[in-house]
Amino acid sequence: MTHPAHLRTLLRALVLSALCIGTSGGHALAQNGSVGTAHRTAVVWGTILGAADARPLAGVAVALVETGGRARYSTQTDSAGRYGISAPTGTHYRLVARHPGYQPDSVGFRLGESTKLSLELEAHTIGIAPLAAEAQERGGIAGRVIDAATNLPVPEVAVRVEGTVYTGRTDAQGQYRIPEVPAGRVQLRTGRVGYDGRNQAVTVIAGQTITANFSLSASALGLGELVVTATGREERKREIGNVVTKIETEQVEMAPITNLSNLLQGRAPGVAVLPSSGTLGTGNRIQIRGASSISLVGTPLIIIDGIRTNNDVEASLLFTGGQSASRVEDINPEDIESIEILKGPAASALYGTAAANGVIQITTKRGRRGTSQLRAFAQRTTSETLRSQVPSNFLARGLNAQGQRVNCSFVERAAGTCVGLPDSIYEYNPLFQAPNSPLRTGYVNKYGASISGGSSDGAIAYYVSGEADEGTGTLRFNEIDRANFRANVSSRLSEKFRLSASTGFISNFIQLPQGDNSSGGVFLNALRGSPTPTNIQAFSGFAPPHNPSNVSAWGNEQDLRRFIGSANAEYRPLSWLSFNAVAGVDQSNRFERSFVDAGGTPQGSRPMGLREEYRLQQSEFTADLNGNMVHEFGRVTSTTSGGVRYNESVFDETYAAGTNITPGTKAATEPLGAPQEGAGGNKLFGILLSQQFGFADRFFVTGAIRGDQSSAFGENIGLITYPAVSASWVLLEEPWFLEVDVLSHLRLRAAYGESGRPPGRLEAIRAFTDRAAAAEGGIVPGDVTSRLDNVNLKAEITSETEFGADVGLFDNRLALEVTRFSKNTEDALVRLPLPPSLGGPVSQYANLGEVENKGWESSVRLEAIRTERFDLNLRFNFSTTQNKLVSLGDTT
Fold it and tell me: Is residue 647 part of a domain?
């Protein structure tokens, strides 16, 4: 079997030899000596530059001479200053470069594997920049990054050694450090949200730490910023063919952010945050690029520090009329460092089954090396219900056809059957009449503190925070009491191995009122009330038989304990190879209770009160393993990524209800049916592979595929695959492109991808419900079919095509981003009616429907003013979405 390293060496030799032959008139490899055929060969390659201006030198004579001058291999550099020579390994050589007008230069080395050697020629002095074999000499790179306009340090800048997996990140003082870099000439690139990327070539000297500082200019375009891919690798936005929106919380520090929805609101075109109610403690719906499913919830996949988390936006079982808590809003925005939004399958294909609605990837805060930083805050917000938003109740008294004084409805007055009396119109608003008003001034008190820092050498860093919220809504029976704790730590155990852990604990108590569609809802009964003096005296103006007292007696509580924890290990055995593994769990325990006292809110058949309890234990497990390889072949950069995924979701729930409440207690003495319980879950295994080629750092093409197998699928469904392909072309950097003074950037991009949306966890399997049956000799237990199995049930498949352009004007201070997308969902789940003759359920889910989404997205950003004391940034987002239900399939 041929060793993979030998294949890589041979491939590199063939590619570089062909490159040199094509660029030096067929004289790239001239041998003046014999070489035994038993020797293995390797390639010596690199670039020859002028030391004064770092300009590539063409036509430089490059020779490879064995020690003692026995064998000689020679070539010439091409127009880009590149050369490549193939020679036997295991021999000591000296590389010699000569060019008219420049001082000759040389360097000695022993050829083991393929080696990069770059030289700088000077007119009078020698400049040597050897890059020795990787396992030999190494050095370090350190420096500082500042803002070009303000000269202030810029934190959170990623500085990457191009063509390798080595990366450093600046701390609060703008300082960074990259240790253990192979000696030689390397290219550095920076990346950060809101700034242009910068490149800098430096020479790493063995045993020394060189300095490389950067001055970054603010950019509304931000193509140099880095985003995290599905394999855990960071890529620049310019390399990606699909649109990705990245939000860093420091950009919105002054905004009134109280939850995740506030962070997303209005900051990404195509992302809609839909308020579900104004009740304190309830959540909003998040929808990206419209609704693409008939039966399933359209919430995007939420990933926190690399693991899947609970994204249930209707996390309440007991009836409140429509209001519910949301697990998405459990996340403390103060702990969020950045958010990346992948808007559809064109971007999220590698996330597989569950990513058809898009992906929101959240990274929590990490400490940085240096002095510990302590932050504490306290704030109070208040809220009122505007009187102008709640109309009063009106009633007119009038005379009917018989001349009797009666209540006149609008219909009767319009028909002329009742003549209203102008002096007999009643008006009353029961919501604002003290002392019986159910409204009040709501408030939320927030207290929080965090401490972060790390060792001076960056070997360990930490972030610890805590926050407590307590408050009331504008209704008297709406309260919250919430606490968040987080501890994140990262450690560089060696120059090749890093380990980090992220833990978060959430305690959340919510009391919700009856509202919306509930017959006992506050606003419903207030608006249905009568303004007559008799009704005001008996029911405070509410619709009989309700009044503010018994409406508020219907209590709904939810108590949550939730833990989100993950661990990430990164191993970099070679400069071009890295591995990362992520494992974690999202564990929640939820308790809900609904209570109506005897003689409380009228409940028809429940005059003796009602008590309901629901308990749910839910867990989401994640385990990922990824590998990334980066190689440079001249001006071509190859990035190969692969990984495996395992996700498991389990739940265990119980429900019980009772009546006949003992006065003065909350004890129910009479059960309402038998207690119910359920348990189950599903497992998913996925594999993925991605290959990207970059050409001259201007044109990038990526192909990827993901395969998933899930226990939620029917037994006849095997591996489902999701392909993806994308291209990105930085057109303005092409040397032939016409220069326009105001135009500072132009990029074209296109992408296609597929992703899925799984059916319910148990929808594919047969289910039974226990029923008592009469038989000879008495009542016996039995089962009836409550759900039929569907062996062909599979995920909804959504395919998406998107293309667009990014334009930068006036040194990228003005940026325009335009995207056109088209999504098509096939095999959408539809309820299929079943014949009654089956004697069981009347319907079941089947993959029958088709949904289509199309639209435009645009974003305009302007860096208007940027000084040391004042910034003014403007953003305008616009999007359109067309949803079309193409087909419900054949439901006959």
Answer: no
pLDDT in tens, 417-432: 877 776 677 778 888 8
The Cβ of residue 726 has, within 10 Å, a number of other Cβ atoms equal to 24
Q: Provide the sign of the torsion angle of the four alpha carbons 810, 860, 821, 284, taken in this order.
A: positive
Terminal-to-terminal C-alpha distance of the chain: 58
What are 684-731's pLDDT values in tens digits?
999 999 999 999 888 999 999 999 999 999 999 999 999 999 999 999
Instruction: Name the domain count of the chain.
Output: 4
CA 855/CA 820 separation, integer angstroms: 6
Element (H, E) at 522: helix 522-527
Output the pLDDT for position 499.
94
- Give the mean model confidence (pLDDT) for residues 765-794: 81
Residues with Cβ within 8 Å of 804's Cβ and at least 6 positions away in sequence, in order, are 243, 748, 749, 750, 817, 818, 819, 820, 857
Tell me which H or E stretch contains 19: helix 4-23
The answer to whether position 403 is within a domain reads yes
Identify which of 192, 346, 443, 164 has the alpha carbon closest to the alpha carbon of residue 749: 346
- Three-state SS for 633? strand
Q: What is the CATH number of the domain that holds 94?
A: 2.60.40.10
Q: Residue 803: what residue type?
A: F
Burial per residue of 106-133, b for 16 or more beta-carbon CB atoms within 10 angstroms, e otherwise: ebebebbbbbbbbbbbeeeeebebbbbb
pLDDT band at 517 (very low <50, low <70, confident <90, very high): confident
Q: What percent of the chain has pLDDT over 90?
A: 34
Q: What is the DSSP letter of 249?
A: G
Question: What pLDDT does residue 259 have?
Answer: 84
| Domain limit, last residue, from 102, 130, 158 | 130
pLDDT digits (tens, 9 = 90+) for 548-577: 777 777 778 999 999 999 999 999 998 889
Question: CA triplet 729, 637, 231: central angle to 5 degrees?
Answer: 90
On the 0-12 / 13-18 / 19+ scale of CB atoms within 10 A, 837 is exposed
Question: Where would I find the beta strands (DSSP E) of 135-211?
Answer: 138-147, 158-161, 167-169, 175-182, 184-191, 199-204, 209-211
Kindly state the tokens that stand for 593. Answer: 């209770």
Using the structure block, give the residue that is written with the tokens 């991808």: 753
Check whether residue 248 and residue 290 sit in a common domain.
yes
Strands 676-695 and 668-671: unpaired
Confidence band (pLDDT; 50, 70, 90) for 410? low
Handedness of CA 572, 575, 577, 580 (dihedral sign): positive
> H or E segment at 22?
helix 4-23
> What would the two tokens of residue 368 be?
């940085």
Cβ neighbours around 688 below 10 Å, total: 24
C-alpha 503/C-alpha 505 separation (Å) is 7
DSSP SS3 for 833: strand
Give the pLDDT confidence of 290-338 residue by residue, as tens digits: 998 998 888 999 999 999 999 888 877 777 777 888 888 899 999 998 8
Q: How confident is the model at residue 581 (pLDDT cuts 50, 70, 90)?
A: very high
pTM assigned to the model:
0.77
pLDDT higher than 50, residue 18: no
Q: Rounded to whole angstroms, how far apart are CA atoms 203 and 130? A: 8
- Following CA atoms 486, 487, 488, 490 in sequence, which dihedral angle do they give, to the nearest 10 degrees? 180
Q: Is 723 within the bounds of a domain?
A: no
Strands 301-304 and 359-364: parallel
Contact of 241 with 729, CB cutoff 8 Å: no
Same domain, 27 and 126: yes
Q: What six digits make up the tokens of 268? A: 């990404």
CA atoms of 507 and 629, how far apart (whole Å): 42
Give the domain range for residue 143. Answer: 138-218
